[in-house]
Amino acid sequence: MQFWCSFTNTAWDWSWRPFPGVWLFVLLLGWGAFRLNRAGGGTPRPVHPLTLLGLVFTWIALDWPVGALGAGYLASVHMAQFLLLGLLVPAALLAGLRPESQEAIARSRAGGVLERITRPVSALILFNIIVLITHLPPIVDRLMPTQLGSMAIDLLWFVAGLIFWYPMLVDAPVRPRFVPPLRMLYLVVGLMFSPVMFGLVGFMLYAEHPLYGLYELAPPFPGWTSKMDHELAAVMMSVTGALVAFIGLSTIFFKWSKTDA
Questions:
Q1: Residue 79 sits in which domain range?
Q2: How many CA atoms lie less than 13 Å away from 80 in the CB half-sphere?
Q3: Which residue among 16, 73, 75, 187 is buried most deeply as judged by most CB within 10 Å?
């Protein structure tokens, strides 16, 4: 039994495999979300639907079969995991925080450190650094064959996503200078025209050979080459990043226009 999904260099089959580490992580994440929902006082309310959605997406991204396929069979599924854990799940979890919970986090012992690392410029830099490091071929090919290495990459994506979305979705501490035009620029630089994401997309699309060795050597699916798989991964990163940015830009713009009106 494996604790976490990792590259095994064995032929793929559809036999279900348990990953207790994934279950434990989702349970702990759910427990943490429940505790945060009660933080700050006020009338207790049910957990926000977005929080529940974030937990479901986390489980889907990490458990069998997505977790196993992404760990060592398909680069496109690995990219789907990144998009879920690095973009969608953190956004859903942070958007589900109550204002009282946000204030409680800001007043906590970790609040000062969190405020510094989630300042827009700092958050943008940290997000791109983590995305770059966790997508470098030597890092991926070395870490994914081990369960701890594979888990580290998944958790780093999750942390990077929380850092990236925190200044956008959490209102405590108040950032009066982070006005709507700067928020829109933040999304454009972070997702739409990110030099890191653009570079990765370019390498995966135009490289003569697949970028990652462990997916190149994995047991292939009939009629599906590793090169095609890498190209699909590149398209997924490019399109999803642009789509998420566009949704965010539209939301900010319409809220801004209503405020000015």
A1: 20-260
A2: 19
A3: 75
CA separation for the pair 59, 27 (Å, rounded): 10
The verdict on pTM exceeding 0.90 is yes
Q: How many CA atoms lie within 13 A of 224 on its CB side?
A: 15
Indicate whether 11 belongs to any domain.
no
The tokens for 146 are 């081990």
| Dist CA 200 CA 230 (whole Å) | 11
Give the count of domains, the chain: 1
pLDDT (0 to 100) of residue 89: 97
Residue 95 placed within a domain: yes
Token digits of residue 94: 């942070």
What pLDDT digit, counting tens, does each position of 197-210 carry? Answer: 989 999 888 887 88
Contacts of 40 (CB under 8 A, 6+ apart): 98, 99, 100, 101, 102, 103, 104
Q: How far apart (Å, rounded) are the C-alpha atoms in residues 207 and 226?
A: 12
Angle value at C-alpha 256, between 104 and 184, nearest 5 degrees: 80
pLDDT (tens digit per residue) in 73-104: 999 999 999 999 999 999 999 999 988 889 98
